[in-house]
Each structure stands twice: as C-alpha cells, then as structure tokens.
Amino acid sequence: MRRYAYYPGCSLERNAAAYDESFRAVAQVLGVELVEIDDWNCCGATEYFSLELLPAYALVARNLALIPPDLDQVVAPCSACYYNMYKTDKNMALYPELARAVNEALAAGHLHYEPGRVRSRHALEVMVEDFTPEEIAAHVRKPLRGLRLAAYYGCVTVRPAGHDDPEYPTRMEQLLQALGATVVDYTLRANCCGGHMTQLDADTAYGMIYYLLSNAARLEVDALVVACPMCQLNLDAYQGQVNSYFGSDFRIPILYFTQMMGLAFGIEPERLGFGQEIVSAERVLEKWRNPPPEEEPVERRPRREKTGLPMPEPLVAGRG
Amino acid sequence: MPEEASANPFLEEVIAFPGGERLKSCIQCGTCGGSCPSGFAMDHTPRELFAMILAGMREEVLKSNTFWFCVSCYYCTVRCPQEIPITDIMYRLKRLAIQAGYYTASITGFSETFVGQVETYGRSFELGLATGHYLRHHPIQSIRMSPLMLSMVTRGRMSFTPKRIQGIRQLRAILRRAKELGGAW
Ligand code: SF4
Ligand code: SF4
Ligand code: SF4
Ligand code: SF4
To answer: Does the interface ipTM go beyond 0.95?
Structure first.
C-alpha cells in the first residue's frame, strides 16, 4: 500500500469538493492511503507572494513541518498548493539563508522543517507516475468508450517544476486513453486560464477563458478534463459570464480527471461529486451509462509486402 | 549597500531576492513578451519592463500595470534563454509598488482581503472572499455577478464563514515573527 501525506487545500473543502471526493474515491480503489495533514492552513495561493515574501514561505512551511516524520511525500490536488509547497522546499534547500529565516519564524510556533525531507507532488503526477497506464487500465470496470475528451493542464501543474513536458504535456492524455476515452489533440492544454484575473480585471480574464473554450468547442469535445480547482472554477463557473460577454453559446462540462477515473472504475457518480458542476455533465453521464456499441476491429490489409527490397550485401564480410 | 555604490540602485532593489541577480543577464530577446498570455493588457511587455529596469526608470516601472496583469503562468520563466526567474521578478515588483504606494486599491484589495482572511482564520474561502471583494470595489459588476454566485450557492460550492484552524495562535506567532524578520525577502 502506498502512503502519502495529503494536503487538500481550501478550495477542496467547499468549492472543489467534487475533486476531493473523487480523488479520495479513486485513491481507495488503487490502494493508496492519504494521510491528511493535521490542522493544515491555507497555503496563501499566489496572493501572499505578492505582498510579503518571508511570511508567504513561512505559511507554506508550517504545513510541511506538520507532516508526520514517517511520511516523505505529500500530494496536493490544487496546482497552486502543489507548486507553493514544491517551491518552498526547493528554495529553502537552494538558499540556506532563506531556510534559516523560515525556520526562525517557525520556531515561534515550536516547529521546524528540514528542506528536502518531504517531496511535494501533484495529484495528477502521482496518478501518471506511480501507476503505469496498464495498472490503471486493470481497474477499469466501465470504460469511457465513445467519450471525446480534451485534457487541460493549466500552468503550474506542469510549469515550471515539470514532471511532464512544460510546453506540451501528454501524460493526462495517456491516462484518459487508459480509461477507454477518445482523446483529442487540444493544443491549448498548458495555456493559462487567468487564475485570479477574474477578480482583478474581468475583461482580460474573460478573453483568456473564451480562448480556451472556443478551441475546445471546435474540437467537439464532450468535456474538458482539468487537474486544478482554479481552472475548474474559471472555465465552469464563468462559462455563462463569458457566453454573455462574447455572445457565444458554450456548454462544455468541466470535469476533474479524478472524476473520469472514478467513472471508469465503475464508482457511482454521486460519490464522485457529479452535480456540483455549473455546466451540467448530464450528457457525459448519459454516454457513460449507455456507451456506443464496441466497434468491430477493422481488418486492415498490410500496406506492403512483408519482405522489403533486397538490401546490398555488405562489402566486407562480418561488417554491416 | 550604500546607494552611491551602484550605478543603478533601482536594479539592485529589484534583484534583491534569491535568484534575482540573473536579471542582469537579460539579452532583450523578447521571448517573455511573446509568451505572455496577458501581455495584451499590459502597458509594457515584460521585455520592455526589463529594459526600463536596466535603465533605472524606477517610477515608470513601478507605476506600470505589467506585473499586476501577470497571472503567474511561468511560460516566460521556462522559456527565457537566460534562465531569469521572471515570474518571481513580477512578484517582487508588486511588493515594491505596494511599498512605494503606487497601486490602486481595487487591484491590491483582492490580495489584501485574501491575506486578512488567512491571518484571521488560517483558511480562506476563495469565493466567499470574491463576494466581499467585489461588493467593496465593484458594486456594479457584483450585480452582474450574482447569477453566478447564486448557482454556486445552490450547488453547495460556496460558504460564507471560513473554518478556523486550531493552531491559529501558533500560525499568527509564526507570521508575526516572519514579518519582523522581513529583510531582503
Ligand atoms: S492555493 Fe488556493 S486552494 Fe490551495 S490552499 Fe491556497 S487558497 Fe487554498
Ligand atoms: S491554469 Fe489557471 S488556475 Fe491553473 S495554474 Fe494557471 S492560472 Fe492557475
Ligand atoms: S526572455 Fe529572458 S532574456 Fe529574453 S527578454 Fe525576456 S527576460 Fe530577457
Ligand atoms: S508568468 Fe507572468 S509575465 Fe510571465 S508569461 Fe506568465 S503572465 Fe506573463
């Protein structure tokens, strides 16, 4: 059994409860034990780093310090939480003066964190790195046959820390394929949704969201699959705003990759937080319940003769 | 460092954080600006802004909106041929602009409400917060927002009272000490 410390983060407590529920449900199927960090605090998102640097690091370091000594990995489903922990640990290791200052602050709460003790990982990273697509496929009870999906990673899920290609990641696609889905080539997969821009300048934010949605709509996907609560919020909750702003008519369900895993594992949608999305996922569930008949494998004629053209004999025997 | 020791005190100020030194190696290639998803809304592209920093144009830089439109996507950071930590420089500029008093309340209000909530409760509620922030700074837009808020509430995705962590005193003590230590960070 694999054991990880678990940092849900504030979003997963309420707004992204669907992500928390589905992540826990699929973890159970895969035999993963998630040990929630006791009394964790908000990691500060990106806002703290805009105001004061040392308190921002100290805030994140408190959570790292609270991880029990027998655990050496922590998993976070929120991309911002994940990257904050990763960055704090890495910079503390890289800059001893920073580590000293952070630990001096932590000492005010009788805590200490030794950089390098805990490896911070994204929930998606764990699913695509610690399990092979074959291992995932072995748990599939109800394949996502006939569902056309686009994978959307957003930014800090893969950038700059990089457990996948920072420009053109592909491992969520592999995961969705292992679940039996049809995956489209969504070239905006690692573009940015604008993060908290909706709170700062709505016009700019809507433009960024529109770009992502219109591209997905052109690919005629049944759903856009995400790995971050902020991405989900921006694309799902603001889809209506974007529609009225641009006069568009997008109705693209925005679902977490863990919800798709759960469906494929045969878990009931109610246990995966379905119904919490603003843009209804009913059509996705409909297809999942009544998948199209399995296509007959088309018999293909070999394109050319097995034996190729004769190759020239090597000039010197024994050398090729 | 005494001010007169440097030809460009503003540059020294900007790069005074771990890794910031690399900004001096900017070759003005423009990769950052070309990669920036919110560049269209900025009054100077990141590359332009760096040229201005290297030219010591303190006031123009700190009054620009560039870093406020940075959404921390890290495209520039992973693409910069000189491995300059651009996103961190944007954070640094936000802090300097706040210290210098060059910002509008509606822009930093969001960050400040957020931070205030964390320091009171130890947890945040991004959406509950959005309402508070919106009501305070964009009363007109918040009326436009309300159908969204309503649908979030009916789906149980919004809460109005953050949960308080048990170790809130401990957390505050840590943050207080961190602020005292302050320093170049
Ligand atoms: S990044 Fe967002 S979800 Fe994660 S802890 Fe911070 S506020 Fe909460
Ligand atoms: S895509 Fe959006 S929510 Fe996700 S990391 Fe980027 S800015 Fe943050
Ligand atoms: S990408 Fe790097 S080197 Fe090129 S202009 Fe931007 S900061 Fe300078
Ligand atoms: S991190 Fe900021 S400056 Fe860099 S590309 Fe993204 S939004 Fe632009």
So the answer is: no
